[in-house]
Design brief:
Distance between the termini: 51 Å
Shape: elongated
Strand content: 25-35%
Helix content: 25-40%
Number of helices: 6
Order of helices and strands: HEHEHEEHEHEEEHEE
Strand order of the largest sheet: 6-7-5-8
Radius of gyration: 20 Å
Number of strands: 10
């Protein structure tokens, strides 16, 4: 029985999102659509988003900082950093080409020599290179693991403390 502008942030956001999706426009833009949602409301939102798209296929652009949660609902991923497109491809390409390779510096350098390195961390003689490429052959001296979507995002944007690495 509350007026729309007296709802909590989460309910206000949900109401706005429902109205937006109900419009069935060819293109829908949602900016931080889960702002103020608790975990249950976020799951309900992504289910609602998927259902809405299945009933009325169209372009739905979602801007969010809650990266891992959106993965179940997206087909294409665009990473924009400070106004520049850093990545535009399918989520499947991230799942098949984004890896972290860890080991001794010399072993990692040899394994990643001709690969697209998107970031790197070093501690002592150990190095972790983050790649977006086909993974190298597994060897006993290397640890190769897929990157989570969030880790991929962090490596693509590459800002630490607001400064480009």
């Amino acid at each position: 029985k509350k007026k729309f502008n007296h709802l909590s942030l989460g309910l206000n956001t949900m109401g706005s999102t429902i109205i937006c999706l109900a419009s069935n426009k060819e293109v829908v833009l949602l900016d931080e659509p889960v702002l103020g949602f608790d975990a249950i409301m976020r799951v309900e939102f992504y289910d609602m988003l998927t259902e809405s798209f299945q009933k009325h296929p169209r372009i739905i652009i979602v801007s969010t900082h809650i990266i891992e949660e959106i993965a179940k609902a997206i087909q294409k991923l665009i990473i924009i950093d400070r106004g520049s497109i850093r990545f535009f491809d399918t989520l499947q390409s991230v799942e098949t080409k984004a890896f972290r390779i860890s080991g001794l510096q010399k072993d990692v350098e040899v394994a990643t020599r001709n690969l697209n390195i998107i970031g790197q961390d070093a501690v002592g003689g150990l190095v972790t290179s983050y790649i977006f490429d086909n993974p190298p052959e597994q060897t006993a001296s290397l640890e190769i693991q897929p990157l989570s979507l969030q880790d991929f995002f962090i490596q693509m944007v590459g800002h630490k403390g607001g400064v480009k690495r």
